[in-house]
Design a protein that fits this description.
Layout: H1 7-25, H2 31-34, E1 38-44, H3 48-63, E2 68-74, H4 79-91, E3 97-100, H5 106-109, H6 112-116, H7 130-138, H8 146-157, E4 166-170, H9 177-186, E5 190-194, H10 201-206, E6 210-213, E7 231-234, E8 238-239, E9 245-246, H11 251-255, E10 260-261, H12 268-285, H13 288-305
Parallel strand pairs: 1-2, 1-3, 4-5, 4-6, 6-7, 7-10
Antiparallel strand pairs: 8-9
C-alpha cells in the first residue's frame, strides 16, 4: 500500500478547478473581474531560503494560474520605508494580494508584527496579520495561513476523518502552529501544540492520531515518536550531509509504522503555494472561491481512490 501523500498531484487537481473558475470570470462583463489577479511580493535582505521561496511563488502563480506577479526586492530597507511600500500597494486598486517574505533581516525583525499589520486585511493573502489571525480564532471568514490550510486540505483529500482525532502539532509559530491548531479545532479535532520547552514530547506525540512535525530539526522524529497507524505530516525541509532533501521526520524509520505520511518533497510544499493561489483569488472574488476549493477537494479525493 502506498502511504505517501502526494501534494503535487493534489495541488495540480486543485489548480485545474481554480483555472476553470478563473476562465469563467474571464467572460464577465466587468473589466476588473475579467483580469486575472495581481499579486505584490515584497522581500528584504539576503536570506537565501526566503528569496528562493519568493521566486518559486512567482513562477507558480504566473505560470499555472496566470496571475500578474510584481516582485520587489531590496537588499536593505528601513521599517518606515517598508511600511510605506506596503501602504502604496494597499492603495493600488489593481493589486489584489500582498505578500511579505519572511524572515525579515535582524534589524527589521523586532518590528515584524507592526510591519505585517500594515498590510490591508483584504489583501493579506498569507493570512499573517493580526486581523486575519483574529478572524480565524473567532470563526469568521478570512484569508487563512497557507501552510495550515494546505495541511487540512490534504488530510481531507485523503479521506482522514478529523472528528475527535488527537493531534500533536510540534510548532507554536503564528505561521504554522497557532493557526493550524485553530483549524483542527474547527474540524472538531483535539490538538495539542508542542514546542522546544514541552516536557514528555515523545509520549505526547506517540499518543496522537495525527502528528505534524515543524520543529526545523533535521530528522528528529523517528518511529519512537509515532504510534501504529498514525498520520504523519512533515513540514520540515533540510539538506543532509549527502545533499539529499530530508524533513523533520526520519522518513524510513517511520514509514512502516504510520498509515500515511508526507514526503520531504512533493508533500506540504506544493499545497502551501496552491493555497496561496486560492487565497489570492478569494481576495479578489470573495467567499465563492471556497466553494471552488470544495469541488477540487472532492474531485481530488475521487481520483486518489482510483
Amino acid at each position: 500500500m502506498e502511504k505517501r501523500m502526494d501534494g503535487t498531484f493534489v495541488s495540480n487537481v486543485l489548480y485545474e478547478e481554480l483555472n476553470k473558475y478563473l476562465e469563467e470570470k474571464g467572460k464577465s462583463n466587468d473589466y476588473y473581474d475579467r483580469i486575472r489577479p495581481k499579486v505584490k511580493i515584497i522581500s528584504v535582505g539576503d536570506d537565501f531560503g526566503s528569496q528562493m521561496y519568493g521566486k518559486m511563488k512567482k513562477k507558480k502563480l504566473s505560470e499555472i494560474v496566470g496571475y500578474t506577479v510584481d516582485a520587489e526586492h531590496c537588499d536593505f530597507l528601513s521599517a518606515g520605508d517598508l511600511m510605506l511600500t506596503i501602504e502604496n500597494a494597499n492603495r493600488d486598486g489593481m493589486i489584489d494580494g500582498i505578500m511579505l517574505q519572511l524572515p525579515l533581516p535582524k534589524d527589521l525583525a523586532k518590528y515584524e508584527r507592526m510591519i505585517l499589520d500594515t498590510i490591508d486585511l483584504k489583501k493579506d493573502v498569507d493570512g499573517l496579520t493580526s486581523g486575519s489571525l483574529g478572524k480565524l480564532m473567532v470563526g469568521s471568514s478570512s484569508l487563512e495561513s497557507c501552510t495550515p490550510k494546505g495541511i487540512i486540505t490534504l488530510l481531507k483529500v485523503y479521506g482522514i476523518d478529523l472528528l475527535g482525532k488527537n493531534v500533536c502539532i510540534i510548532n507554536r509559530s503564528n505561521i504554522v502552529g497557532k493557526p493550524l491548531g485553530q483549524m483542527f479545532l474547527r474540524e472538531n479535532s483535539t490538538p495539542v501544540i508542542c514546542h522546544s520547552k514541552t516536557k514528555n514530547l515523545k509520549e505526547i506525540s506517540k499518543g496522537a492520531d495525527i502528528v505534524v512535525a515543524a520543529m526545523n530539526k533535521q530528522e528528529m522524529l523517528d518511529d519512537n515518536y509515532i504510534k501504529d497507524g498514525a498520520v504523519v505530516i512533515d513540514v520540515g525541509v533540510h539538506k543532509n550531509s549527502e545533499g539529499k532533501t530530508v524533513g523533520d521526520v526520519n522518513f524510513d524509520s517511520v514509514y512502516d509504522k504510520c498509515s500515511l505520511i508526507t514526503p520531504p518533497t512533493g508533500g506540504v510544499g506544493p499545497m502551501t503555494i496552491c493555497m496561496l493561489a486560492y487565497n489570492v483569488a478569494k481576495a479578489k472574488y470573495g467567499d465563492e472561491v471556497d466553494l471552488v476549493l470544495d469541488v477540487g477537494i472532492e474531485r481530488a479525493k475521487a481520483l486518489i481512490k482510483k
